[in-house]
Specification:
It is built from 10 helices and no strands. The chain has helices spanning 12-61, 70-94, 99-117, 125-137, 146-169, 175-199, 204-229, 234-241, 244-256, 262-281. The longest helix has 50 residues, at 12-61.
């Protein structure tokens, strides 16, 4: 567990590599989950991933040793519920629409938080993001699965709620501890929603595959992000994370053979540009807004629009 307690070491180059590796782990895990959904269904893959993530993080975080207030415990429970919703909704979207499109639409959640809380000049980027949404959904054609679009936007809303809840818990619970409490809650919620329908489809190979997916999301990315954040400025980290929809499109093409059309490519580019623009708008000095959020971003760090600590 030394990785979670060491101070800043290495340079920005290694931090950039770690952030990039975290993004790739997440998107590769999502691509693998889409393939596995043919056997378990999207809800079954969501449950399997969350259940294994809960087991791994309980072992690492040992939540029974954590002393938190009642309000912090409630916030972590809400985090778990939101994480379950984010996972179920996104997987439901990813099997209906291309991975790059789903990731770009989901990214609108944290982007909205950054725009609303950012400086007034930065809110012009909301128009850029809106143009990206229009290009992604192509309402003038009506060919995109409407349920997939709604599910992706719902996942984005859950991601936005997750950011707000991590800020609320941040003064009392650090990143690993928050996950060690919230992830079992997410697993329990998902079990209540979809578990009974999935149990009959499980076998040992699927269970072992689920353990691997849980390592890809959230355990390895979370560790890499914490290490990257000790080497990078929050604005730099946020800019890198804003590239996630583009990485999702590339991995969707390479792994799932999902070639984005011209309109979808433009839409993804506009959403990425909006994320980078909002992040860079926050580079000038400003009063601290939080002391330390649940992702371990550090004292006084503004919340970038991209990172998702649960990475689910």
């Amino acid at each position: 567990m030394k990785a979670f307690s060491q101070g800043r070491s290495g340079g920005p180059g290694s931090g950039t590599a770690m952030a990039g590796a975290a993004i790739c782990c997440v998107q590769l895990g999502l691509a693998a989950s889409v393939g596995l959904s043919e056997r378990l269904g999207p809800e079954g893959v969501s449950w399997l991933r969350l259940a294994w993530a809960a087991v791994i993080l309980v072992v690492l975080g040992r939540p029974w040793r954590i002393r938190v207030s009642g309000s912090a415990l409630l916030t972590c429970a809400l985090l778990g519920t939101v994480t379950a919703g984010m996972t179920l909704l996104f997987m439901g979207a990813a099997v209906r629409i291309p991975l790059g499109t789903a990731s770009a639409l989901e990214f609108l959640g944290p982007l909205s938080v950054a725009v609303i809380r950012g400086r007034r000049a930065g809110r012009w980027w909301a128009l850029v993001a809106a143009g990206g949404v229009a290009a992604l959904t192509e309402p003038w054609h009506g060919g995109t699965d409407p349920l997939g679009l709604v599910l992706a936007l719902g996942a984005g809303a859950c991601w936005a709620a997750y950011i707000l809840l991590t800020q609320r818990a941040g003064n009392e619970v650090n990143g690993l501890q928050a996950l060690a409490v919230s992830m079992p809650v997410a697993a329990i919620v998902t079990t209540l929603v979809v578990g009974p329908a999935v149990f009959g489809r499980l076998d040992w190979p699927l269970l072992l595959t689920g353990a691997g997916l849980a390592l890809l999301m959230p355990v390895i990315p979370f560790s890499l992000e914490l290490l990257a954040l000790r080497r990078l400025k929050a604005s730099t980290f946020g800019t890198l994370m804003s590239l996630e929809p583009a990485v999702a499109a590339l991995i969707g093409f390479a792994v799932l053979a999902q070639a984005p059309g011209i309109s979808a490519g433009i839409g993804i580019a506009l959403v990425v540009a909006a994320g980078i623009g909002v992040t860079l708008q926050e580079k000038a000095p400003r009063p601290p807004t939080v002391t330390a959020d649940a992702g371990g971003r550090g004292e006084g760090a503004p919340v970038p629009p991209g990172p998702r600590d649960a990475r689910l």
